[in-house]
Structures are given as structure tokens and as C-alpha cells.
Q: What sequence folds into this?
């Protein structure tokens, strides 16, 4: 299984695939509790952010 890291507004937040269909969102320094969500839902949220940012540039 391949794990990837993505920064979400802070260098201390990490996202990793915990299961084939789930991602775990956590913090390197314990500032918030880890949570899990559906990987497709997470990807959809990221795509929504990208669309929003592209609209701001237009």
C-alpha cells in the first residue's frame, strides 16, 4: 500500500490512506484528534477547493 502526505493549511497536518477506501487525517504534534473519512469524499473535497481557487484567479 502506498501512503502519501498532503499539507492542509499547516505543515503539521498529514493525510494518509489508512485502508483502501479510507484516509486518516492527523497532526504531527497532537494538536487535534485523528479522524478518518472516505477516500473518495476526501478527494472530492480537495477537487472542490481546487475549483474554488481557480475561480478566484479568473
A:
Amino acid at each position: 500500500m502506498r501512503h502519501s502526505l498532503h499539507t492542509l493549511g499547516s505543515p503539521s497536518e498529514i493525510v494518509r490512506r489508512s485502508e483502501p477506501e479510507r484516509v486518516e487525517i492527523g497532526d504531527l504534534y497532537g494538536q487535534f484528534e485523528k479522524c478518518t473519512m472516505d477516500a473518495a469524499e476526501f478527494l472530492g473535497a480537495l477537487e472542490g477547493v481546487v475549483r474554488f481557487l481557480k475561480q478566484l484567479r479568473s
Remarks:
- The mean pLDDT is 82.
- The CA atoms of residues 21 and 46 lie 16 Å apart.
- Residues 39-57 form the longest helix (19 residues).
